[in-house]
Specification:
The complex is a heterodimer.
Chain A: E1 2-5, H1 6-20, E2 24-28, H2 44-48, E3 53-55, H3 60-73, E4 76-80, H4 91-97, H5 101-104, E5 114-119, H6 134-137, E6 144-146, H7 151-163, E7 168-173, H8 176-179, E8 181-184, E9 197-200, E10 205-209, H9 213-228, E11 232-236, E12 239-241, H10 245-255, E13 258-265, H11 270-282, E14 291-295, H12 305-311, H13 315-326
Parallel strand pairs in A: 2-3, 2-4, 4-5, 5-7, 6-7, 10-11, 10-13, 13-14
Antiparallel strand pairs in A: 1-8, 6-12, 9-11
Chain B: H1 12-15, H2 20-45, H3 59-68, E1 75-77, H4 83-88, H5 93-100, H6 135-148, E2 155-160, H7 167-178, E3 183-189, E4 192-193, E5 196-197, H8 209-213, E6 217-221, H9 225-240, E7 246-251, H10 270-277, H11 281-291, H12 297-320
Parallel strand pairs in B: 1-2, 2-3, 3-7, 6-7
Antiparallel strand pairs in B: 4-5
Helix pairs in contact in B: 2-3, 2-11, 2-12, 3-9, 5-12, 6-7
Keywords (chain A): Oxidoreductase, Pyruvate, Thiamine pyrophosphate
Organism (chain A): Paenibacillus nuruki
Pfam families (chain A): Transket_pyr (PF02779), Transketolase_C (PF02780)
Chain lengths: ~325, ~350
């Protein structure tokens, strides 16, 4: 067990999977000698060689498309998109191709790729280095989508993604890279895709989220309990497609008051679907309307500090929403 | 096309390394593809199938290329007109007809996709979709994987000249060029992207684009099956020798409308179409074989009769075959769906 940063856990997962399976390889822009613009792949080329850690031309559709072709041949590619903001040229390859290969071939072909892409703002990235792209892909049948919040989950989910027989989008949060540290076992564990995780038990409100906002939620939950005796039941979705319906229903029923939080825009975000599941399955167990706290419906997000701060979630915003719901 | 070569009376096909039997076999596949096309057209007009997208006029390029490949090892990424190609690499008329009728037994997609969306792991025909040119990066990925695994094989991908304007063509070519991958890209330039003529799609030569990606591009008469065979064979040798990709531009003409939903005379003249029928590869190649003394009108009539029978049987089989079960709509989104892991 070692204390490490979120970004180190991602790197460790790739390193372990590449050592275990010759078919695993990494491709993307700057992933080789430089080790990625965030250093996520640092040292991998040195260890595994240029053939297995490929610097690609700057062309995202080719990064995804070449990975898909190699996967259909029998490889297990990990394709890195430098920022999720730049993966839209690869959307046709991901949605029209990767997501449908098993289905359209009636189970004859498969496409076990992982597409890693950093999401999220709060890094003065402006409009095109800050976005959350999960809602673009959410709802596309045939894709699995994961978004870890901790170093432990980042390693375990990435290893599960590499071993998954179907395409997985791995949305890592760039603000978490260095900010978040945690205990990460050096053994060969995986975090199963499709399973949510209860981070905190409480009886007053349920908060459902994924990725970075969970850190704000956990801090706010701690303070609310200490200061005001409000206890929170916090569920980390971890996998946002397919959603862990039962965990969502159980968590909602537990307190009857639900707040759903994500940084992605409110409209069309994952939260709407989570709310729909709760409304369909346990409406009569609720004691308050379902609430959502999310990024406003503007393009995410201006680079100037006041507007970036306005867009981003933080502990205080989350705490207000949680208290408000508790007092309903 | 002349039968006699210039040197020691070798025929053209012998000069490029084809036996008489192979030269005849190529013709047989060209004719089989044509007969399949004609039958599907009739079936669509008769209301038996919903849709057909034709390969008429493409047969020589498709069959010529297929024969130049290793049909036991290579990977194929055909596009939607490639009936001649997929028949040549092992798909049967019955299998294609099952696809046309969208029946459960269709090996391409289990009746899920439109006809012309080929796929068969057994035959290494990589599953395809409708958004055009997405298969080019896939072919590059297959070639990359083969190179990583040190396998002596090539991937062969086709597309139309319309598709050659998509980003995936350019991104795929560039990637393949940078990594010197064993991939052959063949553009079947049939002069039309549905209704848009070539001069409104392209201002230069498609084959010249290869220069910008650092590998050879060759333009070839796509109605000349032997010439297509020759250039594809050369491309394959280069690929296998580690010399990288080749772009082949096969010049031909889409003799049919774009699909059974298209009225081509809304944008081109009957005279133009008639003029191009005069260059049709089938009578041209048949005459070549007869001039070589290895084929005859009698054999040709016999073969046509045989194909009528094959089409009849394939049609009956596919028509009578069951559709997929409605509830199986939910299967194969992910691995293990059939075990209820959905």
């Amino acid at each position: 067990m070692a204390m490490m940063e979120y970004i180190d856990a991602i790197r460790l997962a790739m390193k372990e999977e590449m050592a275990l399976d010759d078919n695993v390889f990494v491709l993307g822009e700057d992933v080789g000698l430089k080790g990625g613009v965030f250093t996520t792949t640092k040292g991998l080329q040195e260890q595994f060689g240029e053939d297995r850690v490929l610097d690609t031309p700057l062309a995202e559709s080719a990064i995804a498309g070449v990975a898909i072709g190699a996967a259909m041949y029998g490889m297990k590619p990990i394709a890195e998109m430098q920022y999720s903001d730049f993966m839209l040229p690869a959307t046709n390859q991901i949605i029209s191709e990767a997501a449908k290969i098993r289905y359209r071939s009636n189970n004859d072909w498969s496409c076990p790729i992982v597409v890693r892409a950093p999401i999220g703002g709060g890094v003065f990235g402006g409009l095109y280095h800050s976005q959350c792209m999960e809602s673009v892909f959410f709802g596309t049948a045939g894709l699995k989508i994961v978004a870890p919040y901790s170093a432990y989950d980042a390693k375990g989910l990435l290893k599960a993604a590499v071993r998954d027989p179907d395409p997985v989008l791995f949305f890592e949060n760039k603000k978490c890279y260095k900010l978040i540290k945690g205990d990460v076992p050096d053994d060969d564990y995986v975090v199963p895709i499709g399973e949510a995780n209860l981070l905190r038990s409480g009886d007053d409100i349920t908060v459902i989220s994924y990725s970075l906002p969970l850190h704000f939620i956990m801090q706010a939950a701690e303070e609310l309990e200490q200061e005001e005796g409000i206890t929170s039941h916090v569920l980390d979705l971890r996998t946002i497609q397919p959603l862990d319906r039962q965990a969502i229903i159980d968590a909602a029923r537990h307190t009857g008051k639900v707040l759903i939080v994500h940084e992605d825009n409110l409209t069309g975000g994952v939260g709407g679907e989570v709310a729909a599941i709760i409304a369909e399955e346990c409406l009569f167990d609720l004691d308050a309307p379902i609430r959502r706290l999310a990024g406003p419906d503007t393009p995410p997000m201006p680079i100037n500090p006041p507007q970036e701060k306005f867009f981003m979630l933080n502990k205080d915003k989350v705490k207000v929403a949680m208290r408000d719901l508790a007092l309903f | 096309m002349k039968a006699e070569g210039t040197i020691d009376q070798q025929t053209r096909h012998e000069q490029i390394g084809l036996t008489d039997a192979q030269a005849i076999e190529m013709y047989k596949y060209m004719l089989l593809a044509r007969k399949f096309d004609e039958r599907c057209h009739l079936l669509q007009r008769a209301g038996k199938i919903n849709f057909h997208v034709s390969g008429v006029g493409h047969e020589a390029a498709q069959v010529g290329a297929a024969f130049a490949l290793d049909r036991e090892e290579d990977y194929f990424l055909p596009y939607y007109r490639d009936y001649g190609f997929v028949l040549s690499v092992g798909m049967t008329a019955r299998e294609l007809m099952l696809s046309a009728f969208a029946k459960a037994e269709d090996p391409n997609s289990g009746g899920r996709q439109m006809p012309g969306h080929f796929g068969s792991k057994r035959l290494r025909i990589v599953t395809g979709s409708s958004p055009v040119t997405t298969q080019v990066p896939h072919a590059v990925g297959v070639a990359l994987a083969a190179k990583m695994k040190k396998k002596k094989l090539v991937s062969f991908v086709t597309f139309g000249e319309g598709s050659s304007n998509q980003g995936d063509f350019h991104e795929g070519c560039n990637f393949a060029g940078v990594h010197k991958l064993p991939v052959i890209m063949m553009c079947q330039n049939n002069q039309y992207a549905i209704s848009v003529p070539a001069h409104k799609q392209i201002s230069g030569k498609i084959s010249d684009r290869a220069l910008g990606y650092g590998f050879p591009g060759v333009q070839v008469d796509g109605n000349d099956v032997l010439e297509v065979y020759r250039v594809t064979k050369e491309a394959r040798e280069r690929a296998i020798n580690g010399e990288g990709p080749t772009l082949i531009e096969a010049m031909l003409y889409r003799l049919s409308p774009h699909s059974t939903s298209d009225n081509d005379l809304a944008y081109r003249t009957q005279e133009e179409v008639d003029e191009n029928w005069k260059k049709d590869s089938l009578p041209r190649y048949k005459k070549y074989l007869i001039d070589c003394g290895i084929w005859s009108e009698e054999q040709d009539a016999e073969l046509s009769k045989e194909y009528v029978q094959i089409m009849k049987e394939a049609t009956e089989y596919a028509d009578n075959a069951p559709y997929p079960r409605a509830e199986d709509t939910l299967l194969h989104v992910f691995a293990g769906d059939e075990e209820g892991n959905q």
